[in-house]
Amino acid sequence: MAYSVVFAALWVVASTIVAMLPMRLQFPPGIVLFASAPVLIIWLGFDYGWFFSVLALAGFASRFRNPIRYYWRRWTGREVDQ
């Protein structure tokens, strides 16, 4: 088994643990997970092809859908719900 799959599985476990933390404690580890995801997705695509990279991207977008939606609205100048 390639290391990319091992690290992807560890990323999923870590993000699940972070999701169980209180909201005020989620931000620092969440930023690290958010920043490391693109590298991991590219690595998976390099090892297994673009289809698995797309699946990993869908999982990433599903996991971080609310932060992505929030920052997308801020960056495009639309109203942000608080």
Textual characterization of the structure:
This protein has 82 residues and is an all-alpha fold. The protein has one domain. It has 4 helices and no strands. Helix 1 (3-20) packs antiparallel against helix 2 (23-48) and helix 2 (23-48) runs antiparallel to helix 3. The longest helix has 26 residues, at 23-48. It starts with a helix and ends in a 6-residue tail after the last helix. The model has no long low-confidence stretch (mean pLDDT 89).
The residue-averaged pLDDT reads 89
Secondary-structure element pattern, one letter each: HHHH
Total strands: the figure is 0
Structural domain tally: 1
In short:
This protein is mainly alpha-helical and 82 residues long.
List the helices and strands and how they pair.
Elements: H1 3-20, H2 23-48, H3 50-63, H4 65-76
Helix pairs in contact: 1-2, 2-3
